Amino acid sequence: MSDFVRNYEIILKHLQSFNISLDLFRQIRKPKLGNLELIAMNLTAEYMGVHSELQLFRDIQSTSLDGLI
Distance between CA 10 and CA 55 in Å, rounded? Predict the structure, then answer.
């Protein structure tokens, strides 16, 4: 497991403990990531100093997060 995924799971767990509902919009098709998961991924990227999308895609390549964005 990569450091990015480990940090992502920790941040996501803490965000989920707040019990915040972020389902503001009704969407016809179901997105691959929920709003909370996307926020957790963004916070993880900021925390780890990922400054470009290319670097983010390299970090999540061959992990459980690959293909979700």
Answer: 20
Domain count along the chain: 1
| Number of alpha carbons in the 13 Å side-chain half-sphere of residue 54 | 0
Neighbours of 8 (CB within 10 A): 24
Q: Which residue is listed with tokens 């459980």? A: 64
| The model's pTM | 0.81
Q: How far apart are CA 11 and CA 8, in angstroms?
A: 5
pLDDT for 20-66, tens place per residue? 776 666 777 877 888 889 999 999 999 999 999 999 999 899 998 88
Structure tokens at 35: 């709003």
**Alpha helix (H) ranges present in 1-69?**
3-16, 35-48, 53-60
Q: Is 34 part of a structural domain of the chain?
A: yes
